[in-house]
Structure formats: structure tokens, C-alpha cells
UniProtKB/TrEMBL annotation:
Protein name listed in UniProt: RidA family protein
InterPro entries: RutC-like_sf, YjgF/YER057c/UK114
Pfam families: Ribonuc_L-PSP
SUPFAM superfamilies: YjgF-like
Amino acid sequence: MSSTLAARQKIPSGGPYENVFGYSRAVKVGAHLHISGTCAPAVHEKSDAYTQARAIMAVIEKVLGEAQMSVADVVRTVVYVRDINDAEAVAKAHLETFDAVRPASTLVQVDSMLRPWQKVEVETYAIADE
């Protein structure tokens, strides 16, 4: 096993797709944390894009905490929306979470997501101060 693989901290979500797809909710290697695309929990199935985005931010903050990191360590986000008309609502939730940090970010529209009710998904990258 390489030293990089040995130093890898996997942070699981416990969700069923981790075993189906063979991935982890997040992986930390050294100071770098990569959080997989995060969607709102199923309890938000009927929620609007803003509410789903706020729920996603809460999940991201939880994962950051599990990695002994915080929102202040986030350097990049990639935001996917199913409807570009939701961009402003999603951007509002992003700003509320990352206003003081201002990570690099990309927002793109996609045709679909894993579940038809999902309106937004966010990938997150963070680097801890060394």
C-alpha cells in the first residue's frame, strides 16, 4: 500500500450508494479534504432549491467537523442545479455559508440528478492550515 493510501482518512455517510458505487462521502489526505457531491436528505424531497441548498450546507459543515475542519478551510465549491432559474436561490444559501470565506466556485446546470426531486448538488474542497 502506498503511503498516500495509508494516510487516507475516509469519512463515510452510511448511505446505501457508497457500497453500490464504491466511494466515500469524503476523503482527507494530509491537509486536503474532498467532499463528494452532496444532495439534500430525503426529508427535503418537497423543498425548494434554497431549502435544499441550506440542508446541503448543513451536511457539508457536519463533514468538515468530522475532519476537524470548518467552513473557513473551504477553498472551492462546484454547484450543480437542475434548473438555472434556481441559481439565485442556491447562491443565497451559498453566500450565507461562505460569505466570510469566499471560496472559488462554479455553478452549472445539469439535465438530471440521481433522484428526480433533487434540485441541487454541491462538491466541496477544503485545505486545513498546516
